[in-house]
Each structure stands twice: as structure tokens, then as C-alpha cells.
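Example record used in the benchmark description.
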Amino acid sequence: MAKILVVDDDDTILLVFRAHLTKGGHTVETAVDGLDALTKIPSFRPELILLDINMPRMSGFELAKKLKENPETKNIPIFIMTSLKQEVNIKKGYELGVEEYITKPTNVSHLLLRINKFLENRAAR
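Model output (C-alpha cells):
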């Protein structure tokens, strides 16, 4: 399966997502904010990033922008997972180049299906 980085400042979200994604066969690393993620990405080399927006030190939007502007990380798919449901935020996410914008609360089983389908389609290309 895939190496997935989960970036969220909520410990419960990190624990739940790590458990479900690992059970689904994925290798999971976690980060508590954008700066933490930036330190882990070079060594972990994720194949997908699940990213919250509202976090301390560096928001998800800031991290997504940095990653999509960097030639070494621009092709890492990003799924934003956030409670921000406003159209302006959804539009901003897609303008930054994220692949999915998912609102919380998230059905973890459904998210796992979406991740697996996305990865299957990407591998088929």
C-alpha cells in the first residue's frame, strides 16, 4: 500500500487515522503542524498527505503552497481534511493544487475507500 503523512494538531484525529490507515495496510507518519510536516517529509517520503488547515505555526494552506511550489514535492497528492466548509476555502484549496477537499467530521471508512481508489487510479496511469 502507500506511505501516508497525516498532518493535524488534534491528537485524537492523529490516533484514529493512524489506526484505520494502518489497519488498511498503509504505512503512516504523523505531524502536528506544517513545520513538523516539513521536517518529516524528506525522510518519510509520503505518497499521499492528509492535511488539516487550521494548525499552529504553519497552516495547511501554507504547507500546501510550499509543497506545490517545490519541484521535489509538487507531485505528492494532498487531501485536505478540515471543518472549513466555506466555498472560498474549498476554492483556495483546489487553486493551490490539492487533489481532494474533504470536510470534517470525516467517515474514516469512506475516506479509506477514497484514498485506495485514488491510489489505484494513480498507479494505473
